[in-house]
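Researcher: Quick test of sequence recovery. Tokens follow.
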């Protein structure tokens, strides 16, 4: 499947935060916790330059992913594709490019956290090569 030639994928810049947040908050299954703020997003982008990506079409943002690493493991957060651009390979292409960027920085594994009840997201991540880890559970600790 080839991408729409009018779609451009590029690094996610701090100036894009307001429009990306509109996409994320309008997308089902994207959850937010402490630290998930526009200011927190800006800090994350500064600490992981060039790894987070977005897609534009005709000047508007139609997909975005927050991607980075801690020096050991990569993470992709908040991948969202606008409803009218889904099932066209755009999300998979963004993931492919995020993984390539992590690999170029020596990161060999990437993790994604998805709500257990989000069947669409679970299917997507399996489709792009994700392996469900049934041997792990996630704990969240406040600081």
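Model:
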């Amino acid at each position: 499947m080839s991408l729409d030639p009018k779609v451009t994928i590029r690094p996610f810049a701090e100036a894009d935060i307001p429009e990306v947040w509109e996409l994320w908050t309008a997308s089902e299954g994207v959850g937010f916790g402490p630290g998930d703020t526009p200011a927190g997003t800006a800090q994350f982008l500064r600490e992981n330059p060039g790894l987070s990506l977005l897609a534009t079409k005709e000047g508007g943002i139609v997909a975005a992913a927050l991607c980075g690493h801690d020096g050991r493991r990569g993470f992709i957060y908040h991948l969202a594709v606008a409803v009218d651009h889904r099932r066209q390979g755009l999300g998979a292409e963004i993931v492919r490019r995020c993984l390539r960027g992590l690999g170029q920085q020596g990161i060999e594994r990437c993790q994604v956290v998805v709500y257990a009840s989000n069947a669409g997201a679970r299917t997507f991540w399996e489709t792009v090569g994700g392996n469900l880890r049934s041997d792990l559970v996630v704990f969240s600790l406040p600081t």
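The mean pLDDT is 93.
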